[in-house]
Amino acid sequence: MARQRNPQIVTANDLFEGDVIYLTASGDWSRDHGEAAVAHDPDEAERLLGVANAQHDRVVGPYLADAKISPDGRPQPVHFREAFRTRGPSNYFHGKQAEA
Q1: What is the pLDDT of residue 96?
Q2: C-beta separation of 70 from 13 below 8 A
Q3: CA dist., res. 51 & res. 39, Å (int)
Q4: Cα(30)–Cα(73) distance, rounded to whole angstroms?
Q5: SS3 at position 65
Q6: Beta strands across the sheet bearing 75-77
Q7: Mean of the pLDDT values across residues 19-36?
Q8: How far is C-alpha 86 from the geometric centre of its chain's CA atoms?
Q9: Distance between CA 38 and CA 83 in Å, rounded?
Q10: What is the rounded distance in angstroms from the CA atom of residue 87 to the CA atom of residue 69?
Q11: Is 1 a residue whose pLDDT tops 70?
Q12: Cβ-based neighbour number of residue 21 at 10 Å
């Protein structure tokens, strides 16, 4: 039996500003995870990743991330790392950082 695959999106960092960004269906980038283009099969995921990799003058480190689809049809993070990345920089002094 074939393994069930999650839908995937492409994420990267903006080359100039460093922000986490997501590839949209138009081939542009958004800082809103919910605006990301969703690939429902491996071929589409690889195509989207190819679009992102061709924009090496705009983005750094594009990769595929698993997503789940919310009731309103927008992609949502599956893994903690991706959920954490949607919240912005983690260089604020809090928690263990404040104790150092």
Answers
A1: 46
A2: no
A3: 13
A4: 17
A5: strand
A6: 29-30, 20-23, 8-14, 59-69, 75-77
A7: 96
A8: 8
A9: 16
A10: 19
A11: no
A12: 26
Backbone angles phi, psi at 67, to 5 degrees: -140, 160
Q: Mean pLDDT for the chain?
A: 89
Query: In angstroms, how far is CA 10 from the centroid of its own chain?
Result: 5
Predicted TM-score of the model (pTM): 0.84
Q: Which tokens go with 79?
A: 């893994």
In whole angstroms, what is the distance from residue 28 CA to residue 72 CA? 22
**Which bin fits 38, alpha (ψ -120 to 50), beta or left (φ > 0)?**
beta
What SS3 state is found at 67?
strand
- Alpha carbon distance 24, 32 (integer Å): 10
Residues pairing with 77 in the sheet = 67
Express each pLDDT in 50-93 by its tens digit. 999 999 999 999 999 999 999 999 999 999 899 888 887 666 66
